[in-house]
Amino acid sequence: MSDNPQSRHDAVVDELYAEAVHWEINTGEETIHAKRVPGKWRIWKWIASLVWVPFFLGPYLRWDDRQAILFDIPNRQFHLLGVTILPQDFWMLSLLLLFFAILLAVVTALAGRVWCGFFCFQTVWTDVFTWLEEKLEGPPQKRKKLDQGALTFTKIRIKAVKHGLWLVISALTGISFVAWFTDAYQLWVNLFTFNLGVTGVVTISLFVGGTYVLAGYLREQTCFWLCPYARIQGVMVDNTTAVPTYDFHRGEPRGRVKKGAGEAQRTTGDCVDCNQCVAVCPTGVDIRQGQQEGCITCALCIDACDAVMEKLDRPKGLIRYESLDVLNGKEDRPLYKRPRVWVYSLVLLLSLTGIGYGMATMDAIEIKVIHSRQPLYVLQSDGSIQNKYTIKVLNKLTEDLQVTITAPDVEGLVLVGADEPVTARKGMVTARTVFVRIPREKIAAESQPLVFFAETTDSNGERLSSKRESVFIAPK
Hints:
This protein is an alpha+beta fold.
């Protein structure tokens, strides 16, 4: 190639428009084969996708003699490192889900569908599937030609390898999901010995089929027709939201670059109508038409456009992360002037405060006291009054505990049935029936408070206790 600048410029023009005729806006009638171009945002997409690595590796971490994080549905327990969360504490899970829901709303209000473009499992899995497809079948035009070509041995071989790899990834996805709900190592033993239960087989099969179809075939159609978030985002994004935006002030009117023409004679905007922004879009939309339901704000169009501008010696940023207000010359409102950000932040703070309070005040053991209603009290032969109670001890640890039950606040009180410690099974509720007798002369009222205490020591020598107030009933 000649070193003449004009010759190099013309060569770039030829390269740009050689494939431009092949790129069309997605109408859902054919599979989108997005072009892959290197760039800053492509790197950020791969880095963001690493958040799913713990999904595959997390179940194999151990804590003492069990899985570090385990959702034990049959026993209604959630093991998180050294803490066992039982149904009584699931209100914290609700706050956690609320936190992430509002966090998603905050991010969307500030920067659009960042979740969709960088973190969503559909986006990540589809990206991996199409990456494998490109490695095996070649660039987009070659893939389209292969799809439309005759059924040959080479085509069968390539397609078989590709679909085999897709199925392997789908199977690992299903197995990894199930591993969070049962012992991961035992799960593999059951798989290889064909001893997996019906629930496990059905769950893995559904995940294999779902991953294979959604990421391998439906791809962008999942975002268009199955995912509700694309529609919900409409009420979250406003003119102050920074999203990948085409600078129409600078880019219009569009015009193709003419060979031999210099910048001084140009009468068009910076957009050269090369369609590269459409070519790289995984959902096949044209960012130049404004914000659309199909745009997942993955920013790959920014990489494509910047590469073209660089080749043509024009400023980058024709497509960039920008709000509509700033694009139209309005002042960019700071965060503290946006009411929605304040409301969202307040909900996030309250959610985190609630979770923090729950974790800080969550006792390792808890007791519940149920007063017997039939009869309310019994008059003993020595004149004392007896009440019957059922004490339920909840042990949240991963070891059995010997729990002592006492009620020491009333003078002369006799506690019958609590002479021996209660053996509280790990992660379970253990019940014990006890009788409380109080001399008649020590009873101050017809109904008076009575506090029960549960005390024990764990394997590390740490003293654990819990208390619960009940009531003692006596005759008038």
